[in-house]
Amino acid sequence: MGSSLEEAISASIAEKTVPAILAALESRLSRERDEMRQAVAELALAVPIMNRFAKWAEGHEFQTAFEEESFVSEQYQFGGRIDWFGTMDGVPTLIDLKFTKALYPESTYQMSAYRHLLAERGIDVGRTKIVRFGRTEEEGFEEPELPEEVLETGWNVFLHLREIYALAKTLPKTGKAA
Ligand SMILES: [Mn+2]
């Protein structure tokens, strides 16, 4: 049996903490509800994309050699993860999937670098394709095959960027000489 002082203290604590706990719970629930709504909205956006992807994939025959596989260049000290390499409709094909609004020059030198990662392993990738699915119907679809001269220029750009990156890292942060 508690003393009346103890009872008074615990009643007072309860008075302060119960509403605080309820408020915290409520705010957490509301946050979780928002997150749930966002997840549903994202899923609603993803489903048509996945359908378009599935429809595209059904129209071709694929034999996978590598899927989402990471490689490192011993020669140039860089790494990358290849989306897909194998034969597509009987032709050796390196594929990068994009789910973006558009293609950018970065995509080109990324592909050149990926191609190099396989070339270092003695794999001739044949053709190199970017397959882009827009996030909405309006953002469209494209699957360009990158021409040899574009891939060569892309590789050159990549090597230069790599050098610039290494050089930039040697600069002091303050602008003063080290
Ligand atoms: Mn990709």
Task: Kindly describe this structure.
- With 178 residues, the chain is α+β, with helices and mostly antiparallel strands.
- It has 2 domains: 1-59; 62-169, Alpha-Beta Complex (Lambda Exonuclease, Chain A).
- Helix content is 52%, strand content 22%.
- It contains 3 helices and 5 strands, in the order αβββαββα.
- The protein has a 5-stranded mixed β-sheet, with helices on both faces.
- β4 and β5 form a beta hairpin.
- The radius of gyration is 27 Å and the shape is elongated.
- The chain starts with a helix and ends in a 9-residue tail after the last helix.
- The relative contact order is 0.10.
- The mean pLDDT is 92.
Shape field: elongated
- Measured by DSSP, the beta-strand proportion falls in 15-25%
Give the helix proportion (percent range): 40-55%
Number of helices: 3
Number of domains: 2
Oligomer: single chain
If classified by CATH, what would the architecture of the largest domain be?
A: Alpha-Beta Complex
Write the layout of secondary structure elements.
Layout: H1 4-58, E1 62-73, E2 78-88, E3 91-98, H2 105-119, E4 127-133, E5 141-142, H3 148-169
Parallel strand pairs: 3-4
Antiparallel strand pairs: 1-2, 2-3, 4-5
Helix pairs in contact: 2-3
Bound molecules: manganese (II) ion.
